[in-house]
Amino acid sequence: MNDLDVFDRLLAPEGQTLLAELRHHDPSAELAAATRLRRDHPADLVSAALGQAQLRQRAVAKFGADAWRMYFTPNGVEQSTRATVAAHRAARLAALGVRTLADLCCGIGGDAIALARAGIRVLAVDRDPLACAAARANAEALGLAELIEVRCADVTEVDTAGYDAVFVDPARRRGKGAARSASVRGGGRATGGRIFDPEAYSPPLSWAVEAARKAPVAALKIAPGVPHDALPEDAETEWISDGGDVKEAVVWFGAAGDGADRITPGGRRATLLPAGDSLLGAGLPDPEPGPVGDWLYEPDGAVIRAHLVADVARQVDGRLIDPTIAYITADRPAKTPYATAYAITDVLPFHVKKLKALLRERGVGIAVIKKRGSAVEPEELRKKLKLGGGRKSCTIFLTRVAGAPAMLLGHPASDPATDPVTPGR
User: Fold this and answer.
1) How high is the pLDDT of residue 195?
2) What is the DSSP string of 251-267?
3) What span, in angstroms and rounded, lies between the C-alpha atoms of 235 and 340?
4) What backbone torsions phi and psi does residue 354 show, to the nearest 5 degrees?
5) Which helix (H) or strand (E) holds 238?
6) 50: Cβ–Cβ under 8 A, 6 or more apart, which residues?
7) CA within 20 to 30 Å of 80's CA: 47, 61, 321, 343, which one?
8) pLDDT tens digits for 95-109?
9) What's the Cα-to-Cα distance from 405 to each of 21, 76, 217, 391, rounded to whole Å?
10) Neighbours of 165 (CB within 10 A)
11) CA count, 13 A, side-chain hemisphere, 285
């Protein structure tokens, strides 16, 4: 019996009973659970239900409570968009006037769900029959079946004429291709390493770009580490972070919309979730480096990926601490949602023994160690510091200042009481 047959049986009453029983399944007790359940149910169905239970547990991080009603494949969990990010993109598409959309390489339907919830009618296409079965089941389980049509087909052969927009999410894992295939019977990790060459995506980025240019509005999901020289000049690229972690980049085509949601061809944008602050670059040159001031700003990863550090430096009237390091320093505090501010108490040449003595003298027992442009590993340094049990904390930056290894000590501006040391510079 093939995976599709087993998946269909998961949707039937017996499969649903098994999934409900495994709602609070402990993965460490899988053998005992399998042995017990196989007394009353077929072994292949028990394996499939156990696999879904594991996948749902992993998917909670992306889909929240919806995960317990959804269906997944291992690759579907790995590659699907986090719900908060998908909701942001869907809201922007809706604001651009999109009412119908072709979702190419839809996988298990994570983006289609967000789009439908934004009121957009979706044609969801994937060539993997199991992914399509999961996408249909997910649309049905979440009450969105009337807005989501799932079609099993090669996306390169689908006619998208007549749709307001196209969304393409190419496969980015080796050994998988656009099929996104993975057994429904197991909850293991997706296999194959990530692909960094956009032309090795399936379908290739060049095909996706040409397909996008044929639509009134289009969005292409790509890896956030894409080289800027690989980006089309007639599109806007948006880097999105969620909770400080960079999740993806989106290439936007079209000249639709107005105000903050407008697509700006050639533009570079950084969007920070969950707040939704969005910074469109002004094409500024890199700021000149200078001495470390009383304040240090650590730009969000999306800002760095979008090459918008200069824009944030202008916001805080700051400068770089080094021409090659994405830390901004300033003499006065300033508010910006695009960087975390730290009050700096010490700027010292890197020296482990001096740092250890200084922290001991000040009674620091908790150290948050950050690095940028340093070969020193934070955990190795932490072992050498042998901090005591004091409750005082300190943030340590391992970096370069004017080309020389340095360590900066301070505390987050939002909570200065964490480091009671009075600046002595």
Assistant:
1) 52
2) EEES----GGG---TT-
3) 29
4) -65, -40
5) strand 236-242
6) 22, 25, 30, 33, 34, 37, 187
7) 47
8) 999 999 999 999 999
9) 57, 43, 47, 28
10) 26
11) 3
- Nearest Cα neighbor of 228 from 254, 258, 190, 266 is 266
Contact between 322 and 295 (Cβ < 8 Å) = no
Distance CA 345, CA 354 (A): 15
Question: pLDDT confidence of 199, banded at 50, 70, 90?
Answer: confident
Tell me the one-letter amino acid at 86.
A
CA distance 192 to 403: 39
Q: Which range, of 230-234, 322-326, 335-339, averages the lowest pLDDT?
A: 230-234
pTM: 0.89
**170/389 Cα distance (integer angstroms):** 49
- Separation of alpha carbons 406 and 59, rounded Å: 41
The model's pLDDT over 367-411, given as tens digits with 9 standing for 90+, comes to 999 999 999 999 999 999 998 777 899 999 999 999 999 999 999
**Amino acid identity at 268:** R
Tokens encoding 41: 């149910």
8 A C-beta contact, residue 107 and residue 264: no
The answer to whether the CB of 168 falls within 8 A of the CB of 221 is yes
Q: In this structure, are residues 212 and 251 in contact, taking their beta carbons and an 8 Å threshold? A: yes
Strand bridging mode 100-104 / 165-168: parallel
Q: Which residues of 201-230 are buried (b: 16+ CB within 10 A; e: fewer)?
A: bbbebebbbebbeebebbbbbbbbebeeee
